[in-house]
Batch of 4 targets.
Target 1
Amino acid sequence: MFIRRNRNRSGSVSVQIISKKNRRYRVETVGNSKNPEEVERLAVEAKNRINYPLNQTSLFPNLSKTDAVIKNFLKNMANLQVHTIGPEIIFGALFDRIGFNVIKEKLFRHIVIARLAYPVSKLKTVDYLYRYRGIRLKVDKIYRFLDKLCDSYKETVERIAYDYTKQTLKNISIVFYDMTTLYFETDDEDDLRNIGFSKDGKFQNPQIMLGLLVGQHGYPIGYDIFEGNTFGKISQIKNINSLSGQESKMKAIKRKKQY
């Protein structure tokens, strides 16, 4: 058995359950609608019919009045009506405490919290926000916002992180610098993505270099990206020089990984 969504000439979508018995296919239409949310609700209902057939014996046949009310309430509830608030309560509070809420872009808050709670691709982030937060987005909007974030808010984000680190540590006298590589599943190079020494062992794929500066106990200070064929020492010098305008008399330590 499986669920099929069939688009009709009228523009509506029919949600159907397809089953096979005695070498014959049986089509059961659960319902149809032009409303995407209603289509999703019908798909959930179809899935429930497959998983819990109508003639299946209930595990709890004798329900109390309270249980019956709860069951009736949940029966009429669609997936999109249930929102996960845990990440917002925990990570949202940290987001505000650090000071990132001065950036009045709702999408910035959404993708930061989503990244902490469910670190996946941009496409799956769109799915996560829709399923668990009821937020409708297209993946192109996230990519366009990331361009805007880099062009308009990068310095603000770094300043907020630096100020919070300085406030927490009281004094920044030592910074730790580490660098990693991020590769792309493509053969084409450009001005940023180049083939270079890969820490992932993907020497045939173009990559970029990501440099991160942190203070004691791992508190973030700043970051930057470089061309994929940049020598590590050069990126370190560039990062330290960019930081020197914020804080003088620092001792930089290149973190060595122990294997």
Target 2
Amino acid sequence: MDKKQIKNKAPKKRRVLHLNLGKALFVLPNLFTLSSVACGFYAITLLSAPLTADTFKICALAIFMAAFFDMFDGRVARMTKTQSAFGVEMDSLADVISFGVAPGLMVYRWGLSELGIWGVLAAFAYVACGAIRLARFNVLAQHHSSPSNYFVGMPIPGAATMVVSMVIFHQSYWGGTVESPRSVALIVLAVSLLMVSSVRYRTFKNLRPSPKVAFGLLLLVAICVTLCLLKGVATAVFTMVSSYFAMGLLEEMVYYKRRRLERQEARKQEAAAKEANATQAEGTAGENN
């Protein structure tokens, strides 16, 4: 090739990559969700291998980390205004893995394996009820656009925290094998049924900065720190989760009559709305004919 041709040859243009900030923000909440999946998957891999002395503690830490990422993915999506139907469905699938399969396998390896097929069914009941709970939550969310102050049924992250804290609490104090697998099965079934029940649990989304809220938070922190110092972290976590577990049941017992009347009134309004729509449709059809 001649020197003139080399000089006349135009240099190639380099491609410049432009960062689309909107797409990058859309990925951010999904990264939190995938981090939750990674923690749940890590716990499952540990539980699928031969158990060691620290297996349950590491698995519990992984599931708690999954709960941390799950708690913030929705908030990040709202802060960045990147909510989407894709994110909702992905979050539900992640919850089935991290708070359904992982805790179910954990409680099976810990205290249900001695029951044979009945232990498998008890653990599967937990996973199945968790999946049903998530499906119902998505359906209700589609019909009610405004955020509610209550969960209908125990949320699956709360149920997973309850199961995991029970395992760690037992391991911290007694260790070894479980003396009463049937009692464990009953507790797991109770938690499973609470997920698909109509018992309401507070979301605490209606909390606003105020002296009462600040005092309540300080008191809660003080109780947690005291329990951690006196009894250990496992006792503190198990006590706080059990308190939330019992709070929903107590509120349901206290406000049972009022909530039943509210449900009956809601059914009447729904039936009246359907009847009005049907009458309007018949009138429109008659005018067209």
Target 3
Amino acid sequence: MPAIGLGVFQTPPEATTDAVVAALQTGYRHIDTAAAYANEREVGEGIRRAGVDRADIFIETKVWISDYGYQETLHAFEKSARKLDLFILHQPLSTAFEKTIAAYTALEKLLADGSVRAIGVSNFMPGHLAALRERTAVVPAVNQVELHPWFTQPEVQAANAELGILTQAWSPIGGITSYRGDGATSTFNDPAILAVAAAHGKSAAQVMLRWQLQLGHSVIPKSVRPERIAENFDVFDFELSEAQMGVLGGLDKGVRGGPDPDSITLEAFGRPIPEE
């Protein structure tokens, strides 16, 4: 799986196709989407328009909680792209974890049948991972979680590492700190990050992505602007020193930007995922 992918969370369907085309033409070979984003079809259209061989592109998508359950999740696969590389559960759904176990068992079936190349999870905390491992056979290849310099989730990173699970960061440059905070402060104007960026002639976003890559994480930054998409990919021509890695790693505020995974319930967030 390529270390950098394009994320399309909150990307409107009408903008998704152009963003995917721009990413693939820039050099990206990894696209992350989800049934709940309502733009899987537009991702597929972008891949078709970009003219890049599908065999060279790594596609991952996520099952929404409304489609948890064994048969339901098998059907969710049919509703998604049908030709996927990585299929993951979007949330732990801790209030109905039996459905989560059944859904993951369906993922194991798809993996065994060769329908997908890998399976994984998203937003699973250490307790969720432990409970999943007690009742399933296949270790998730990936755990996609909120992770950026202001929210590093060390316990999750440690649990992933212990189980051999790749940590994949959503909001890897802390975009969530700018659009869900007070707007005045964010990772993008953090003085410590800007100082490291200035030392390399790079942007704050590029430095944060480089930090993630040197930690061994997969990252899926999102943007619809071709210049930002290109900037986020231009992170392979420099390296952060051990001291600079420590600077970024020491900025954790311990404040989650997204929702607590345990707050995601069927009652509050369940909604039908269309067939098409």
Target 4
Amino acid sequence: MRRNTPSRTAQVVALGTLCVAYDPRYTGLVSRESRDWFSRVLFASGQGLAAFALRFGMFRRAAEERADKVVPGILLHYALRKRAIADAVGQAIEKGARQMVVFGAGLDPIGLRTVEERRIPVWEVDCSSTQEAKRSLAKGTAIRFLDIDLGDGCIVDKLATRGWQPGEPTVFIAEGVFMYLPKEVVERLLSAFASPTNSFVFTLMELSPEGVPNFRAAEGLTTWLEEVGEPFTFGLHPRDVPECLEEHGWRILDVVEADDLRERYLPGCIAPKAVGEYVVVASGA
């Protein structure tokens, strides 16, 4: 990924989630608190005009129509996956997690919300250009920002030097991250943080019949990702996840695919469905 400018995909995901948050058809899917945090982060990142425009139906419809031409239902998918991740993280904290580490946090405010509402320390690992928007909003809180390459073999030590306690129960998050990393980096991260007291919540892309990670029914997504310098590089079939996790010290608690997201949070919804990315919840073995 580029490291001199904020992640373009991070901006798209944040704006897409905010679009759904303002949509009266999906009231309650994104909490008011999350909606307000997304708005604040987007304003801080220079996307304030776009964020403000999404308050109005005509602009939301235009954004949804444009996104659906690339991946039908993708904006709603962003909001659904974030809801599933937030619920899983909340459960991990209720079960005893006392720290949180977010890999590739982008513009998502889950770290800001967690330090405010749960009062546990949070570390966010991402490129500094993407983190910059959050730094002013996080002053005085127990959140630390680290500009570390996820492929860095010393990431455990670097987190520890910034106060993370390896022996304390931790919930890790990697939302929309692993698909951009080489397979060996994903496996190294899983192995590095495997512990019986830890939890990991992350998303994975399916593989197409040709072995390419992508959403089904996507039109032009691969080309756009290449143009912005953030191509998908890793995917895994859901059926292969248990074996992969077991090899690297984890066990599955839940796998939430597109149909599960709809049934869990929007039963009866007939809006287009983005299929191809799923949420995994794991516990250290």
